[in-house]
Design goal:
The protein is α+β, with helices and mostly antiparallel strands. It has one domain: Metal-dependent hydrolases (TIM Barrel, Alpha-Beta Barrel), CATH 3.20.20.140. 20% of the residues lie in helices and 26% in strands. It contains ten helices and 20 strands. The protein has helices spanning 11-21, 29-36, 86-95, 111-129, 159-170, 185-196, 224-233, 278-281, 286-292, 332-340, and strands at 48-56, 63-65, 75-77, 100-105, 134-142, 148-152, 203-206, 238-244, 298-301, 322-328, 344-348, 354-361, 374-377, 381-390, 406-413, 430-435, 441-443, 446-456, 460-467, 488-498. Strands 1, 4, 5, 6, 7, 8, 9, 10, 11, 13, 15, 16, 19 and 20 form a 14-stranded mixed β-sheet that branches. Helix 7 (224-233) links the parallel strand 7 (203-206) and strand 8 (238-244). Helix 3 (86-95) packs across helix 4 and helix 4 packs antiparallel against helix 5 (159-170). The longest helix has 19 residues, at 111-129.
């Protein structure tokens, strides 16, 4: 949950919660419900919102020193691209409120040896030193035919062999001399086909998908057709993309003053919008085109932490600014299950710390669904949507006390396969309703609202977005912008199937 101190203006809320926590269980049902943030008093399967980050670099994201004999691979230079140890990253992740993290270093020639002989022992060390954090052994893959992506392998006695084998086989920069055949789009499809057949399939999430885009809808290394190919090849492995990329401190100098020679996310050709990639931020854009096909295609948010901005970098620590919340038990397998199945919402600047959505047909005995799920309704039936959001008290790690100003209910139709593999629009997607404080009930830190979708005729989906700004739509980010003043949260969809 939140790891920030309460402000004077909201201290009474925290004091009241502390008092309730001292009461016997039979006298404090509301306090226990608030701990989980569920719409109707808790998650009965033991799951809770686990904050995490699946894109974090250490000193083993190395640089390379060529030798005099060019027939031999260059030597890795530890600390070349990131100056932090994995235990340091783990401690900072825990400090900033994370329950889980993936160590995801990237490499070059023969980097699989670095992963095996240097990175993995330090992952084990970090697990010993920070036992309260679920730490995954992962990799930032230099993706064949595209930019980067996370590979997160399930925790097991074979995890070192599993991950280093995937890097050795499929990282496009692993070979020396360089092999252009490894950098083909078809090679990534081959990799994903291989991964889904493994006894312990990993999770793959595309990183900063539009960082090389030259304009709105002008994609670079990672294009819509590729992401469709990935998802088709292995829908339970290639499950999504970073909605909010890392490097969000690009607009800050070490003293926190504006820096105008860098952009948020290092999106230097075409910017982010409210800190989010154009593939996510544009209503009716690429993400909605994927959802309109019925694809289970999820978004996350990460730090991409290499070097902290106070140390001359462009990054926040894991969890300091962006968090990916997964509804799961605090166990590696269930966290990965949550990522695979979209039980995920993301938030920047600790704007919110729980988002519980219940979508239920208005009929006796009807089954409800939550984020990442699907509900079935009869044609013409009404559907009730109940939302409970935790807007935590106190200051965030940027020294602000943000409040949710608006929550948008976004709705789109299931339209079947897109007319083109390169499609990046769903024209049916719209903001169904914008909610403000006049529409919801606030009890302490919690916001609750209910609305009804009347006479549902077609299969579709709904998703949520909220902000602490006054912007109707996220504005294009500009150099020198302070990210702490531009906070948003996004929740993955709930699908509505009409029979």
């Amino acid at each position: 949950m939140r790891a920030r101190p309460p402000s004077a203006a909201r201290r009474s809320v925290v004091a009241a919660a502390s008092l309730l926590a001292l009461l016997p269980a039979t006298l404090a049902p509301v306090a226990r419900a608030h701990e989980t943030g569920a719409p109707h008093g808790g998650h009965d399967d033991g799951r809770a919102w686990q904050a995490g980050d699946h894109h974090v670099h250490s000193q083993f994201s190395v640089d390379w020193k060529p030798g005099s004999d060019l027939s031999k691979a260059p030597e890795p230079v530890v600390g070349g691209d990131s100056n932090n140890t994995i235990p340091t990253n783990a401690r900072m992740a825990q400090k900033y409120g994370l329950s889980w993290m993936a160590a995801t270093d990237h490499g070059g020639p023969n980097h699989s040896r670095v992963s095996r002989d240097m990175t993995y022992p330090e992952v084990l060390k970090a697990r010993r030193e920070v036992p309260g954090l679920v730490l995954f052994f992962g990799l930032e893959l230099n993706t064949p035919g595209a930019d980067h992506s996370s590979i997160i392998v399930p925790a097991s006695p074979q995890e070192r062999d599993d991950l280093t084998d995937l890097e050795r086989r499929f990282d496009k920069f692993e070979a020396w001399p360089a092999d252009p055949a490894r950098d083909q789009e078809s090679r990534m499809v081959e990799a994903l086909t291989y991964m889904k057949a493994l006894p312990r399939p990993p999770v793959v999430i595309a990183h900063h998908p539009s960082r090389s885009a030259k304009g709105l809808g002008q994609y670079g290394q990672t294009a819509p057709a590729e992401l469709r190919d990935w998802n088709d090849a292995a829908p339970q492995v290639s499950v999504g993309m970073e909605g909010a990329p890392g490097h969000q401190a690009g607009g800050l100098k070490p003293d926190g003053s504006p820096r105008t020679d860098e952009k948020r996310g290092a999106y230097r050709q075409h910017p982010t919008y409210g800190g989010f990639d154009q593939m996510t931020a544009r209503v009716g854009g690429f993400w909605d085109s994927m959802l309109g096909e019925g694809r289970r295609w999820w978004i996350t948010a990460t730090s991409d932490s290499h070097r902290h901005y106070t140390d001359g970098g462009i990054d926040f620590w894991p969890g300091e600014y962006a968090k990916t919340y997964v509804l799961a038990r605090k166990a590696p397998d269930d966290i990965l299950d949550g990522l695979r199945n979209g039980r995920v919402f993301v938030a920047t600047g600790d704007l919110v710390s729980s988002v519980d959505l219940e979508v239920r047909p208005v009929a006796r005995g009807a089954t409800a669904a939550g984020i990442g799920g699907e509900v079935t309704v009869s044609r013409g039936q009404d559907v009730r949507v109940t939302l409970r959001v935790r807007d935590p008290a106190g200051q965030n790690f940027g020294g602000r006390s943000p409040e949710v100003k608006r929550i948008d209910l976004i709705r789109g139709d299931l339209t079947g396969p897109a007319p083109s593999r390169s499609a990046d629009e769903n024209p049916t997607t719209r903001v169904e309703r914008r909610f403000t404080a006049a529409d919801w009930v606030r009890e302490g830190e919690f916001i609750t609202l209910t609305t009804t979708l009347r006479n549902v005729q077609a299969s579709g989906y709904i998703r949520l977005r909220g902000t602490g700004t006054d912007e109707a739509e996220p504005a294009m980010d500009v150099p020198g912008e302070n990210p702490w003043d531009d906070l948003w949260f996004y929740a993955n969809p709930v699908f509505i199937k009409v029979r």
